[in-house]
Fold this sequence. Notes:
Elements: E1 43-44, H1 46-51, H2 55-67, H3 81-90, E2 97-100, E3 117-121, E4 124-127, H4 139-158, H5 169-181, E5 208-210, E6 222-227, E7 231-236, H6 237-241, E8 261-268, H7 271-281, E9 283-289, E10 297-303, E11 306-311, H8 328-336, E12 343-357, E13 364-370, E14 378-382, E15 388-402, H9 403-412, E16 417-419, E17 426-428, E18 443-447
Parallel strand pairs: 1-2, 2-4, 5-18, 7-11, 9-12
Antiparallel strand pairs: 3-4, 6-7, 6-8, 9-10, 10-11, 12-13, 12-15, 14-15, 16-17
Helix pairs in contact: 2-3, 2-4, 3-4, 4-5
Bound molecules: zinc ion (ZN).
Zinc ion binds next to helix 4 and helix 5.
Amino acid sequence: xxxxxxxxxxxxxxxxxxxxxxxxxxxxxxxxxxxxxxxxxxxxxxxxxxxxxxxxxxxxxxxxxxxxxxxxxxxxxxxxxxxxxxxxxxxxxxxxxxxxxxxxxxxxxxxxxxxxxxxxxxxxxxxxxxxxxxxxxxxxxxxxxxxxxxxxxxxxxxxxxxxxxxxxxxxxxxxxxxxxxxxxxxxxxxxxxxxxxxxxxxxxxxxxxxxxxxxxxxxxxxxxxxxxxxxxxxxxxxxxxxxxxxxxxxxxxxxxxxxxxxxxxxxxxxxxxxxxxxxxxxxxxxxxxxxxxxxxxxxxxxxxxxxxxxxxxxxxxxxxxxxxxxxxxxxxxxxxxxxxxxxxxxxxxxxxxxxxxxxxxxxxxxxxxxxxxxxxxxxxxxxxxxxxxxxxxxxxxxxxxxxxxxxxxxxxxxxxxxxxxxxxxxxxxxxxxxxxxxxxxxxxxxxx
Length: 448
Ligand SMILES: [Zn+2]
């Protein structure tokens, strides 16, 4: 099953790792309090929360699913109804702690296999970075992993399973059967919403005045979600709910499997409010460059602990469905409008040079970014066929490690764009606003 068979790791370089220490209880989310809530009341450690932000939603959905008898097969080799219901009750127990340890310790008799999760005792489930599948973000795989371990918790608490009885078929077979019988469809669409809203940002430092009118808190149909391939998307609830295929996603390839979408923000009142709220929380926004891919350039940023490719602008039906088209210029504009300049990061320091070759009227001259500094006013550059051309260099600036350092030099030289020598990458002054800041600014609490 998924927990083991898909986790072959080449070689044995996965070392022993230390654990993430004592988990502290998370603040309960909106739906987490009160009897009859579908949401779990377990304790999720901070590192676990960061690794699996969708875990509360997955646990809430698992709890509802375990209690819903109509979704389970009947008969021999199925998990008994009363056991499923007791597992749901365990998800209401704050003593059950979810810990995180990427990767877990290798189990000796599995050779090079890595464990997706472990039940440490009757109160502790430890997840590795493999618990959510290869992407780390697949709610169905995470649900299967957690259901497996939750049954072990039940076995420890109620059936006398000894700790460290890793591979006894009497305990393992039911856990694998449960994974197989878990109604996968329950986790393919919208999950039960149990994720706590982040605490309101204290406006201690400078804040950004709101330009859009926020609606009533927690209402509206605009939401943010992430996809299995790691895209941050913004759209209406109906777009989030709409079934899509993996191949509908940029870089999704040809797979016709259902596209996994995980809600990570909202609801908000309008698209404008959604963009304002999301960009306020974006960190480390960059322009990622993939010379051989389509699109070859996309924006990327960290949102609520997840490193994601940003697709804030297009792709929703009501805007004219544009599928896998990526409107880089529009994406950058939406960031600039919110005060963020996506940072161009160079793999190695770059020099900006003005190179000349030949004599007028057949003189060649150009600006370019190169990786090696000119020497004595001259530089040899590849000619594209294995040889080199020699150039005279009359201006050299740098070295620069990123676009933010380079832009003032470009402005002095009156160059709005400049290419990297030998690459299809172009750096543009139009993709930055001063002051150059690569992250959002908390929004002021009141409208002005
Ligand atoms: Zn097991």
